[in-house]
Amino acid sequence: MNKLRISARLHLFVIISCALVAIGLAVGLICHFVAGGYFNYGNDYKSYKTVTVSYVVTEYDREEVHKISSEAFDAAGVNYYGFTANGSRLGEDVVYKFSKSVSDESLQTAAAAITDKFIAGGSLNSRADFHTEQTVLGGGKALIFASIALSAAVLFQFLYFLVRYKLSAALAAFTVDLHNLALFLTLCTLTRVPVGSSVIAFAALTVLVTMAGCAFLFDKIRKKNKEEGFAALPIKEQADICARETLVTSSVLSAAVAVCAVLVFVLLSISALSVVSVLSYAVGAVLMSAVCVYGVSFFTPALYARFREIKVASKQKSARNADK
Amino acid sequence: MGKIKSAIITAIVLAAVFVLAFFSLVSFPLAGSDGVQGYNSFIRKIHLGSDFAGEASAVLYPEGVISAADYSLAIPDDEAKREEYVGKYTKYGSVYVENDAIIDGADKFRSQVEQDAAVLNYRLSKKGYTSYSVSVEDGYAIRVAVPTNYTYAAYNENLRYSDSDLRSEELNAVTQTIQFLAYDGELSLRNTAAGSFYDKELGAYMLTPLKENPADYFKSVKKYGIGGNYAVRLNLTGHGRSEFKDISSSVMNTTDDANIRFYIGDKQLIQLSCTSVIDSKNFLIQVNDEALAEEYAIVLDSVVNGKILHFDYGTDENLTVVYSTANLGEKAPVYLGAVLLAIVLAAVIFSVVRYKKLGLVNSLSVIIFSLALICAMMIIGIQLTMLGAFAAVCGLALLMGSNIAAFEAVRRETRKGKTIQSSVKSGYKSVLSTILELHIVLLVVSLILTLVCVGEAAACGFIFFICTIASYILHWFTRFMWYVISSPVKDKWSFGGYKREVFDE
Hints:
The complex is a heterodimer of chains A (about 325) and B (about 500).
Chain A: H1 10-34, E1 40-41, E2 48-56, H2 62-76, E3 82-87, E4 91-99, H3 104-120, E5 127-136, H4 139-164, H5 167-191, E6 194-195, H6 197-225, H7 235-268, H8 275-323
Parallel strand pairs in A: 1-6
Antiparallel strand pairs in A: 2-4, 2-5, 3-4
Chain B: H1 3-25, E1 28-29, E2 38-39, H2 50-53, E3 55-60, E4 65-67, H3 68-73, H4 79-88, E5 89-92, E6 95-98, H5 106-125, E7 133-137, E8 141-147, H6 152-155, H7 164-181, E9 187-191, E10 197-199, E11 204-206, E12 218-226, E13 229-236, H8 238-252, E14 259-264, E15 267-273, E16 282-287, H9 290-304, E17 322-324, H10 332-380, H11 386-414, H12 420-452, H13 455-486, H14 492-495
Helix pairs in contact in B: 1-10, 1-13, 7-9, 10-11, 10-13, 11-12, 11-13, 12-13
C-alpha cells in the first residue's frame, strides 16, 4: 500500500473510464433500438401488460380469485411481478402486472382460462381480460429534472470548493463528479439495473460521497502542507501520500453509505419483498460505492496532481516571460 | 447551573416532548361522542404516496370505444338486435370499437389516441403529483393513474376512526382533476347576447371573428393565489390585448349577458363578468378554490399552447375513478411505520450503549427530530413516498452523525488531560465549522432538489431540507441539554461515558 503510485497513472484511469463509458454508450444504444430503452426503466416508467380479473364479490373472495388466477398463470407459464386490487362496478378488480416481454398469446390464454373457470363455476358476470399498457414516459420528466438538479448540485460543489480550496482542487472535484456520475450511469446501463427513484437517490448519493471524499483528500493535503518538508516534495508524491492516507476513510464512507442505503431501501420495501427488488437496490448501491471509491481514491489525486502541475508550469512560464 | 433550575428546564422540555408525542402518536375517542368519533394522531394524518396508499385510476374511452366487459353486458337478448349490435363493433384486443368511429382507419385512430395520451401527460405533469402515469390501453383507450393522496387514517378502512370523509374528498378531487384535464377541443369565447357572429347550432354568439383563433390572444395562463383567494391569470399577447379591449367593451354594453364565456370544445370552463373595459397585459378570473384555479389554468394553458385533445372522453357523464391498493402491498404503511420505529430505536439504543447518560440526551434529540418531522409533514401536507422515507432516515443519520462527531471531539479533548467543561467547549469548537459547512452544503443541495426537480424527487428534497434545518437546531439543543442535565451531576466524566486521563508528572 505504501508504494501505491496513483498520480502517475492518470492516463491509465482515463483509458479505463473512457472505455467503460464507450461500452456503456454502445450497449445503451443497442438496447435503445432492440430492448425498449437506453436504460432499463423501472416499473414506475416502463410499459407493461396486465390481466384484469373482475369478479362479483358475493360469488368469490379475493383468495379464491388468486388461486384460480395463479393456476391459470402457471398453466400458461407466465409470472406476474405485482398486483393491485380495486373496486369496480361488479365488485372488485384484481390487476396482475406482467413484464412487456411476456407473450400476448400466453396472457390471452391465461385470461380465457380464468373466464372459463368462472363460467364453469356458474358466475356469468365475472371475467378476466388481457390488456397492454403503453406508458407515456411521463415519469421520464422526473428523471430529466432530477438530472438538472444533480447538475446544479455539481455546479454548486464547484463553487463551494473554489471558495474553500483553490481553483485546481475545485476543477478536479468538478471533473471527478462528472466522471463518477457518467460512470455510475454507464454501469447502470451495462448491468440493466431498473432505473427508478432508487437510482435517482443513488446518483444523488454519488455526488455527496464524491464531495465528501474530495473534501477529505484536499483537507489532508492542506493540513500536510503545513508540515515541514512536505511542501518541498514533488506534487505527485504529495498527492500520493494523501491519497494513501485517505483511501481507507473514503472507502469506508462509500461502503457504509451503500450498506445503509441498501438496508433502508430493503426494509422500507419489506412489504413487497421480492428478490428482484432487493437485487436492484443492492446492485445500485454496489455500483455507487465502487464508482465513488475508484473516482475519489484513484482518479481525484491523479487529476488534482496534473492540474497542480499545469498551474505550476504556467506560473513558471509566466515568470520566465516576465524575466525576459 | 443550579439543581432547581436544571430540574425545571428538564421537566419543561420532557413535558413538551411528552405532549407532542401523545398527540403525534396516540389516537383516542372524542369525549361525548360515545366512542363513535375519534381523534386521529398526527402520524395517521400524513399523506402517503402511491407506494404506500395506492393510486386512483380511470380508463378514458374515446367516443365509440367500449371495454369488453361493457360490450358483453350490453348484448341484447333479442336475436335480430343482437346481430345488429354485434355487426356495429369490431374487436381490437380487449376493447370494442364502433365501425363508424374509425372511418379514417384504425391506424389514424390509434395515433390520435397516442397524441391525446401525450397531451394528458403534459397536463398532469403540471399538477405536481409525486408520481402519476398515463398509458395507452390496448391502443384505443387511455389509462390515467395518480396517487390517492390518502392519509393512513383514510387508507385503512378497518381503523376505529377511519377518515372516510377524506377518502371520498380525495377521490372526488381526483375525479374532478381527470374530468377537467380531459376536456377536448379548441378554445372559443362566447356570449348569449352579443358577438361577431351568431352560431345557430350552438345557440350562442362567438366573440371572436370566424378567421381568428382566440388561443392566439393569450401568451400563457397561470394559477394565481393570494391570501386564500384564488384566480386564473390570463396573460395576453399584444394582438389579444387590443381584441380583448373591443370584446370586453361590447360585452359590457349588453344588458342580458355581461359575461365572456370560455369554452373548451362544447363545454364551458369558466366565465368572466365584465364590469369594465379590459385594457391591460393580463387579467384575473376569480374561482372558488385552489384546485379549480389550477385545473382551469392547466387546461387553458395547454389549449393556448396548441395541446388539444382529439376525442371526447365523456368525462362529464361517464367517468369511473377506482382506487387500487398500494404498489408495495396492502400493509405497506404498517411496515413503513414499523421500520422507521425500528431505526429510531436502534439510534436510541446505540446512543445509550456508547455514551451512557449523554446517550439519553442524544436520544431526546432523536425523538424530538422524529416528532418534529411528523408534525412538519402533517402540517405542510407533503406526500410520503419510499424515497421521502429514505430522505427522512438520511436526515436522522445527519443528526446522529453531527452529535457523534461532537461527542468524539470532546473525547479526544479529554485525552489531552483537560477538564470535562473545557473539553466540551473545545470539542464543540473544533467541529463547529465542519458541522456548519456540512449543514449549509446539504441545505443548498436539498433546496436545489426541491426547486428544480418535480414529483417524488422534489418532495424528497423538501423533506431533506426540513431534516437539515431540524438537525442543525437539534445539534445545538443537544449541547444545551447536555449542559442543563449534567449540571447537578457530580461525576461529569461518567455522565458521557468518558474516562479521566491521568498523566504521570
